[in-house]
Amino acid sequence: MKIGFDIPAFVRQYLPPILRTPVRVAWLSALTAALEKMWADYDRFRTEARYAAAVTGQKIVLEAYLNRLFDPEMRRIRITYGQDAGLWVDYDADSDGGDEYLYDGVAVGSKEQGAEDESADFTVEIPAGTDPEAVRSIVNKYAIIGVMFNITTV
Known about the structure:
The protein has 4 helices and 5 strands, in the order αααββββαβ. The protein has helices at residues 7-14, 22-54, 57-70, 132-142, and strands spanning 78-81, 88-89, 100-101, 122-126, 149-153. The strands form 2 sheets. The chain has a 3-stranded mixed β-sheet, with helices on one face. The protein has a two-stranded antiparallel ribbon with strand order 2-3. Helix 1 (7-14) crosses helix 2. The radius of gyration is 22 Å and the shape is elongated. It starts with 6 loop residues before the first helix and ends with a strand.
């Protein structure tokens, strides 16, 4: 969960109405300017830390390779981890990519690799018009043995 903190709104809200003069609000805003910068730095650090924790080297390489082969112009192929595979981390609530998950390295179940199942470890999201079987063969070639995945068309 990403928590935002609007310091100027906080200052205005908790200042009594009789004291909400432009001079006082400006004075308090000047006092809290350093706090606003510190919050912005922390928010940037938190977003980067969550992103770094959710992305593995294998994910980056496989996603880049699939995009290079099947969607070099727009690079819309994404790999997302399922909720059964690990810890949920919403690294950026404002992004269009949705939620990401940390992978804990434990394969779920014992089905055949690449089987369509809701307990898959990760999902490969491909754009319409991309051949799912070609993507499946590449992912089977480079995925860890025993790791299950789904392919969905977005």
